[in-house]
Specification:
Layout: H1 2-13, H2 17-27, H3 30-37, E1 52-58, E2 65-72, E3 78-86, H4 89-102, H5 107-111, H6 115-122, H7 129-149, H8 154-157, H9 160-179
Antiparallel strand pairs: 1-2, 2-3
Helix pairs in contact: 1-2, 3-4, 4-7, 6-7
Region (Disordered): 154-180
GO molecular function: iron ion binding; iron-sulfur cluster binding
Protein name: Iron-sulfur cluster assembly enzyme nifu
């Protein structure tokens, strides 16, 4: 993947890959570079399984597409998370970082992670904040997909806290879209 990145940088900017990587290393925080060069939790689950929630989100502005999948147990704990992202280093880093952060957490706690948390932790430049927003939206979509498949689950049918959290996230998404 790094070799493809170097080739792309050379063709896009017409500068040697080593100089291009130096520019990127100056522009991005080391955490972004680490998650880009060594992404965690890349892969997919069988989306037909009941304990798997799949969320897909993209950005028309930049063409990035992000898929996040969650494996949620009967207690509402995210046992595993996978992602596939086609996009820039910030999008890949946001997906990788988010999947690391949510593994082992209860769905309510995971849904509390927002794009500002991701952007702050990765030190994303302002023009890349949309990457962290895509990760948050893909996470929410994955949970909604899981919830749809598990209507009788106690965290779907009987827990108002989770429903309240989803309403809050929907309101935040609407506000964010209005700003963009």
């Amino acid at each position: 993947m790094l070799q493809l990145f170097k080739q792309t940088q050379k063709s896009l900017f017409n500068i040697p890959p080593s100089n291009s990587l130096l520019q990127i290393k100056r522009f991005y925080d080391q955490k972004v570079i680490d998650h880009f060069e060594n992404p965690r939790n890349v892969g997919t689950f069988d989306a037909d399984e009941l304990d798997i929630g799949t969320g897909l989100h993209g950005s028309l502005a930049c063409g990035d597409v992000m898929k996040i999948q969650l494996k949620i147990d009967k207690e509402g704990i995210i046992k595993d998370a996978k992602f596939k992202t086609y996009g820039c280093g910030s999008a890949i880093a946001s997906s990788s970082f988010l999947t690391e952060q949510i593994k082992g957490k209860h769905i309510e706690k995971a849904l509390g992670i927002n794009n500002k948390d991701i952007a702050k932790e990765l030190n994303l430049p302002p023009q890349k904040f949309h990457c962290s927003l895509m990760a948050q939206q893909a996470l929410k979509s994955a949970f909604l997909n899981w919830r749809e498949k598990n209507q009788d689950h106690k965290y779907v049918s009987g827990n108002n806290t989770t429903s309240k959290k989803l309403r809050e996230l929907a309101e935040e998404d609407k506000e964010q879209e209005e700003k963009n």
